[in-house]
Amino acid sequence: xxxxxxxxTIPKPFEPVSDAYLRSWTDYIQSEKAAGDVDRVIxxxxxxxxxxxxxxxxxxxYFIYLETEAARPxxxxxxxxxxxxxxxxxxxEVLLYGIYFEExxxxxxxVRDFFAxxxxxxxxxxxxxxxxxxxxxxxxxxxxxxxxxxxxxxxxKDVRQQLFLLQEVASFHAFLHENAEAGWEMLKSARRELxxxxxxxxLSFDFAFKCNWDVANKLRNAHxxxxxxxxxxxxxxxEKDQRDVWKAYIDLVSKGSKDPLIIKSTVAAYHNxxxxxxxxxxxxxxxxxxxxxxxxxxxxxxx
Length: 303
Prior knowledge:
Elements: H1 19-35, H2 38-52, H3 56-67, H4 73-82, H5 84-87, H6 92-104, H7 108-122, H8 126-138, H9 142-155, H10 159-170, H11 173-176, H12 180-189, H13 191-194, H14 198-210, H15 215-233, H16 239-256, H17 260-273, H18 275-278, H19 289-292, H20 296-302
Helix pairs in contact: 1-2, 2-3, 3-6, 6-7, 8-9, 8-10, 9-10, 10-14, 14-15, 14-16, 15-16, 16-17
């Protein structure tokens, strides 16, 4: 059969695979799908995995096929469980697909086991810990979600990833609205590592604004972080970054407060803080007689 010939050679693990080789597998599987033989398609997918087990896209396509076109959830569950030690070393997207599937089948304990297994062997990975937090929030296990947030934040060593984790959780309303105080305390505790970055203040203001507090609480909490910015961190930031933080705060106040006096006083404080940059340029100095030399018309203007 003409599909068999191009796939006879099995590539070495983790070495680059040519597009032509991948296309040969894809075309072969697609031809069997068109023939409608589910068992034959499954056989080919598993044959492809034998050669290309290190390619996450093959696993993902196979899992999707088993769940949708083949409608064989039991086989998908078996594959996911059997090859879990392999899957944790691939792109997290593959593992997460299997986890979503298990959750959709109501196997909550199994999902928790998979997440725990991943953390044990791979440590804290942003994409996975984030989905684990979301999962626990969907189960209304908010204390567990809070613990995972703290563990995730401590386990991520990159400041940008820490910020991203906090930002994503802040926007997840099902978690945030039930546990705003805990999230706010977590954010405040992060300031030691994240101080001096304007992104931290953006996140703080955004978090305060999204919380289900009343307006007074939103403004008070945002102002507490802003005061810290004024007192401690301005010297660590460029003038442009300081301006950006001020503008973000003014934007929050404008949205969160209906009192025009509060808005006006905040804007006035901004102009006072950066007055040396915002004042009009000074008028040119009066020209002296020496400047005009012997020109009698210009001399006349000064007399």
